[in-house]
Design goal:
The complex is a heterotrimer. Chain A is an alpha/beta fold. Chain A is built from 8 helices and 12 strands. In chain A, helix 4 packs across helix 5 and helix 5 packs parallel to helix 6. In chain B, 64% of the residues lie in helices and 2% in strands. In chain B, the strands form 2 sheets. Chain B has a two-stranded antiparallel sheet. In chain B, a hairpin with a 2-residue loop joins strand 1 and strand 2. The radius of gyration of chain B is 23 Å and the shape is globular. Helices cover 44% and strands 18% of the residues of chain C. Chain C is built from 10 helices and 12 strands. In chain C, the strands form 3 sheets. In chain C, strands 2-1-3-4-5-11 form a 6-stranded parallel β-sheet, with helices on both faces. Chain C is elongated and about 65 Å long. The two termini of chain C are 36 Å apart. The chains are: A alpha/beta, B mainly alpha, C alpha/beta. Chains in contact: A-B, B-C. At the B-C interface, helix 2, helix 5, helix 10, helix 12 and helix 13 of B face helix 2, strand 7, helix 7, helix 8 and helix 9 of C.
């Protein structure tokens, strides 16, 4: 049964000194599933994301990724294991073009014995970029121009396309459309649907109720450092107001009484 | 190559008409305009007698219609600083700055020339010998070259390490090194010049050799910046250092390498300079760091990092060369030359910024 | 921080040799060849004197720094000050600072603008720059005549840093010589500054050669620029026997160039002599002895004929 889960946390806890930012989080994500993490500010969402992406080390608890317990020393370890993250503030270099950005830090090269002076394999990177863009349904007529001239939405799409190109096992998006306009938000959501169709699991951190209900299978609510609700929204029983109630603490799901 | 999907993403287009007109083309146009301006002055100013700067109408010295001697000196006189500018280009592209190149040239010239001297001058002992023993003379020329490159690498590694591993801004770190190198240059022989190199050493910078070295190094740097991982990462770090770091690039180690390469190029420039002039003097290299930076900036390098090219810098050096020869050509009063040069540099950068702003609207 | 250190150093010097004279010296720049010879002349001479201690500072071509150094010396209680002025027009402030503190002051090598109105207890030891440029230019004029060019000759002037009085004066000397009846056959095509630098002069002369105008003489304000000119002309295939080149300073490199037949003449400025002369004057003033206020050490023309007299002077 555990092979169905791409990510599982047991008792994940993070204390910053006396502050219990995250307490005893038990979380499961099945392969192919899309989950939204919601909660008020300071509820522990970002802390949770930071623990599983290896940006910080946890105080206690286990993280099991793709069936194996893991202990990431840094975000690069998480990336190498197959976890790709798209942040709100993009990790893109404005003056470089799309293939450069996609392959930043992971360039395809030839003559590797030359060390830092090994040659870039532009042709291979261009081809794989086009494939990656296709896979995510991103349309960019001229990938050779610097991304400085692209809109926020296009740039976000490039960042998401990066995850698809590297065949990651899990994608995490932290407020991906918070800074975008209506049309651009729609573009990004289309790409997320594409990911769902290709069976890519996703953790989406979002404040946007409409977006969450449009896109994901389950919602996990954080409150005061603990998970206080795990809701299946595909059945239609749960409404937006219900979720808000869980976020504010007006309601508590059974089984999660400690978080009350 | 499918650009459409069934999701019908609208609006994700990119305006092709804004396809970048390369900045280097602007610099080239500026170069041509400056040449034309000087040619025009040659015709207009009464005391010039209708002379031409680049063309050989009245003189008929070579078989060509061009004044080859003039063209050669235009390139020759900027080649040495041009070598430094190549190194400075990649430093500025990486988001840093290097103010130490000028005094480093002075210090390196002194140190290197000490190992390049010849024992006898016209049958007498070398009057400006740096070292006392016999071993110090007529050494194989590879030795001073290696000493120079090692010195450059050493100074550059200190610059880079300070900048990468501490919070000292590059401006301050390299300014400190500026002063240190000046001190080294003066301390090396207590201010005495070092002259009379071996014929092999003198050959390194003789005739048009400075131009050859500049061209060679420009090609190498061009290939490195455009086609290697090192070049790509340099642009990335200058464009968005956080993004580079988050993508797994070892930013600290890269910066050390960047400054080492810049200082090694400056040291090599010192070798060529001292060879060309058959002497090393503690005051050599004065203002070179500023001229090198100016060449790069005129060539389109952005001081905030991430933008610029070797081609642009070479064109920037040409602009410098044309202006310098142009001033001599029209016999511009010496007192006005510095002012005019400063005005041109400011004008060029302002024009470039204006054009860049127009492009992004 | 540095001031405290220097003051402590001076105080230490003074306690170790109670009867010694301590002289503070500020030199315009440490990386100038000629001034280096002068500075070394001073320090070596002071070493031979039993009870004279020198503290030497580099003004780094900075007028304000030089005045700070002088005030620093005064505050540390030196017995006398020697000044090699960065800017010879800025000496009035220095004179006043020393005079009001009662500290003797000697100007060396560069003529202060107030040299005719120096107060008691101040003097200057230098060579008259009117002589230097004139000796060289006149020699050039005679060489051109001897070569049969009295009907008309063209030439260039290579000037030093235009902020230096020496550059201005030596250039004026050339103009004055050409103004004389017997030398006014010389026509100056152009004059530019090569900033005292060999490299700048070489590039400048290469530019002049490329303009195609023939020339017969180059007047250089100093030897380094003269040598740069020679290098450029040699590279362009010009026979040094066809062009008269004169410089000033009589540096080692210049003497070799004269021996090679490339440089036609230079002018020896007794740097070491100026240095030791200034030390003598400073010590004498500190001890309250009488001193000539203006000591001019003569320049000497150096040609192939008297070359051997000068080979180890600089």
């Amino acid at each position: 049964m555990s092979e169905d889960y791409i990510l599982e946390t047991r008792g994940l806890t993070k204390h910053y000194g006396g502050v219990h930012a995250l307490q005893d989080a038990n979380f499961k994500l099945r392969k192919g599933e899309h989950i939204a993490i919601m909660g008020d500010n300071g509820a522990g969402k970002s802390t949770f994301v930071r623990q599983i992406t290896g940006v910080e080390t946890r105080t206690s608890g286990e993280v099991i990724f793709d069936g194996k317990p893991v202990n990431f020393a840094g975000p690069l370890d998480a990336r190498e294991a197959g976890i790709e993250t798209v942040f709100q503030t993009l990790a893109l270099a404005d003056d470089l073009d799309v293939p450069d950005n996609l392959f930043l830090g992971r360039e395809k090269t030839r003559f590797n014995f030359l060390g830092p002076f090994r040659l870039l394999d532009y042709k291979a990177m261009r081809e794989q970029t086009m494939a990656g863009l296709e896979r995510t349904g991103v349309k960019i007529p001229n990938i050779r121009n610097s991304i400085r001239n692209m809109s926020g939405g296009q740039r976000q799409c490039v960042a998401i396309a990066r995850t698809a190109t590297f065949a990651s096992k899990l994608t995490i998006m932290d407020e991906p459309t918070a800074a975008l306009g209506v049309q651009e938000t729609a573009q990004v959501e289309n790409i997320i649907r594409t990911l769902k169709d290709s069976g890519e699991p996703l953790i989406l951190v979002s404040h946007n109720m409409r977006q969450v209900f449009d896109l994901v299978d389950r919602v996990v609510v954080f409150r005061r450092g603990r998970i206080c609700a795990d809701l299946d929204i595909k059945t239609g029983d749960v409404t937006g107001e219900d979720v808000v109630a869980y976020i504010t603490g007006a309601k508590t799901q059974e089984g999660f009484e400690d978080a009350a | 190559m499918a650009n459409q999907t069934q999701h019908g993403i609208g609006g994700l287009t990119y305006d092709k008409s804004k396809r970048a007109w390369p900045n280097e083309a602007n610099v080239f146009i500026a170069l041509v305009l400056i040449i034309l301006a000087f040619e025009a002055l040659g015709q207009i100013l009464p005391y010039m007698d209708g002379q031409s700067m680049l063309f050989d109408f009245n003189l008929n010295r070579d078989d060509t219609i061009l004044n080859m001697a003039r063209i050669k000196i235009i390139i020759l006189q900027v080649s040495i600083i041009g070598i430094i500018a190549l190194g400075v280009t990649q430093v500025i592209v990486s988001g840093g700055i290097d103010l130490s190149s000028g005094p480093l040239v002075g210090a390196a010239a002194m140190i290197v020339m000490s190992f390049g001297q010849t024992a006898l001058v016209n049958g007498n002992p070398n009057p400006s010998a740096a070292f006392a023993g016999d071993w110090a003379f007529d050494l194989p020329v590879i030795l001073p070259i290696l000493v120079g490159l090692a010195f450059g690498a050493f100074i550059g590694s200190i610059n880079g390490s300070l900048i990468a591993y501490t919070r000292i801004p590059p401006f301050i770190a390299t300014l400190g090194m500026f002063l240190i190198c000046r001190g080294i240059a003066q301390w090396w022989t207590k201010g005495q010049p070092i002259s009379f190199p071996t014929p092999q050493y003198a050959a390194l910078g003789s005739g048009m050799m400075p131009v050859v070295w500049f061209a060679l190094l420009a090609v190498v740097l061009f290939l490195v910046m455009k086609y290697t991982v090192y070049g790509k990462h340099t642009y990335a770090i200058g464009s968005n250092e956080d993004a580079a770091r988050m993508s797994g690039i070892n930013v600290k180690r890269h910066k050390v390498l960047v400054y080492m390469i810049a200082s090694m190029l400056a040291a090599f420039a010192a070798i060529v300079l001292s060879s060309k002039n058959l002497t090393a003097q503690a005051g050599m290299g004065q203002f070179y760091e500023l001229y090198a930076i100016a060449m790069a900036v005129i060539g389109g390098v952005s001081l905030t990092g991430g933008r610029g090219s070797i081609v642009g810098t070479v064109l920037g050096a040409m602009v410098f060369g044309v202006i310098q020869s142009g001033f001599t050509f029209i016999k511009l009063d010496a007192f006005y030359q510095l002012m005019a040069m400063g005005a041109i540099i400011i004008g060029a950068v302002v024009l470039d910024q204006y054009r860049q702003q127009r492009g992004t609207r | 921080m540095k001031k405290t250190f220097i003051a402590a150093g001076i105080a230490a010097l003074m306690t170790t040799s109670a009867m010694a004279e301590t002289v503070g010296v500020t030199i315009a720049r440490f990386d100038d060849n000629f001034l280096t010879v002068m500075r070394n002349g001073m320090t070596e001479y002071a070493d031979t004197l039993a009870d004279v201690d020198l503290v030497v500072e580099d003004a780094q071509d900075d007028v304000a720094r030089q005045l700070d150094q002088i005030n620093n010396f005064i505050a540390s209680g030196v017995d006398a000050i020697i000044v090699n002025a960065v800017d010879t027009n800025a000496t009035e402030a220095m004179t006043q600072a020393a005079a009001s503190a009662g500290v003797p002051l000697v100007y060396v090598n560069r003529q202060p603008v107030n040299m005719d109105t120096l107060p008691e207890g101040q003097a200057f030891v230098a060579s008259n720059e009117i002589e230097s440029g004139t000796l060289a230019a006149f020699e050039a004029c005679q060489l051109l005549r001897a070569a049969g060019l009295a009907g008309g000759a063209n030439g260039y002037i290579l000037m030093g840093q235009l902020s230096n009085q020496a550059a201005v004066q030596r250039t004026k000397d050339v103009d004055d010589v050409i103004g004389m009846d017997m030398c006014n056959f010389i026509n100056i095509i152009d004059r530019q500054t090569a900033e005292w630098s060999r490299d700048r002069a070489a590039d400048l002369v290469t530019n002049w050669i490329s303009s195609g105008e023939d020339f017969d003489v180059i007047f250089a304000n100093n030897d380094e620029m003269a040598i740069g000119a020679i290098n450029a002309m040699t590279a362009a295939g010009i026979d040094m026997g066809d062009v008269v080149v004169v410089g000033v300073d009589a540096t080692q490199d210049a003497l070799v160039a004269i021996a090679n037949g490339d440089l036609d003449a230079t002018v020896f400025q007794d740097a070491a002599g100026q240095g030791s002369g200034s030390v003598d004057a400073a010590v004498a003033l500190a001890r309250g002895e009488a001193v000539d206020q203006q000591v001019f050490i003569p320049f000497q023309l150096v040609t192939p004929a008297n070359l051997s007299d000068f080979t180890d002077r600089n």
